[in-house]
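In response to reviewer comment 3 from the previous cycle, which asked for concrete evidence that the modeling workflow produces usable outputs, we include below a single protein chain processed end to end. The sequence was submitted unchanged, and the resulting structure tokens are shown without manual editing.
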Amino acid sequence: MSKSTPITVPERMRAYRLIAPNELRWEQVPVPEPQAHEALLRVVACGLCGTDLHLKTRGHYYWNDQPLTLGHEIVAEIVSLPLDYTGALQVGDCVVVDPQLVCSNCYYCRRGRLNLCDHLEHLGLSVDGGFAEYLTAPVRNLYQVPDAAPRESLWRYALVEPVATCVAGMRLANPQPHETVAIIGLGFFGQVYAQLARLWGAQEVFALELSPARRAVAQQIGAATPFALDEWQANPRHADVVIDAAGSADAADWCLRVARKAGRVVVFGYRPEPVRADWYQILVKELTVIGSRSSNHAWEHALQLVHENRLALNALIAPYEFDAIEGAFADAEAQRVFKPILRW
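The workflow returned the following structure tokens.
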């Protein structure tokens, strides 16, 4: 579509909504009205995240138990911009959407820690997100997809949000070339973290993973040496930087076991329930434990990585038409795919 072509917007749209735990359905809802600082967007594609699976079954600390349109890994086309907007974006541009809605005024926002905003809301977690035909978002949250991106490949830019969360975590970990990096869990995020560790210059990267299929994919990509848990136990090795990309019940314990003395542990994997770990190991090894939440200041870098194909992502993604969203959820829950991406 030409950027000069007017875009006709219907009054109502389809949205895939969480009604109650384990109850999701398509609904006809009004197309949202943008506020003064917001753009109206037509969704091109939206990734399905593990957080969406958590929301479906158990809720999330963001969710207020009201019907909610899920989806926060969004690439979309601009339908309208604020009347007083004077920036570079234009109607018809394709953009990726930072789902974090911040106040810009609290203690943390003023210090650049936007992901810790005291009034943080989140598209697809606390306010309606991208599993719909349209959504609104603040203009400040939009990052333009390069014009050179082929239109038939725009759906792939839904990967920018999950990659950005890993870039933010890797910046906190900050591995040095002489340091060993270990990844706990080789789902989508673990596979991305392993590749980022190589881009950061780490010479030795290994990973622990239960699933033979996921270990095989890691072997194919070649960024990390994958081990089953019993293989590691038979021949333990340790790492200066350990990243929890699993969020499983025992991931914290494995991180502390794998970490070398004076090492760094990055807590990235989300788990709604508390975990048990040998806290004393942090003292004995003098470990530094770092929490990594969302995608603070990582969007430009992540967009560049996706646009320039710097990461091997083809083996990790599976496109679905939006009408097949129930099948995408089922395949993700059964771990038949790493990352479903829904497309209109």
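DSSP finds ten helices and 18 strands in the chain. We consider this sufficient to address the reviewer's concern, and the full set will be provided in the supplementary archive.
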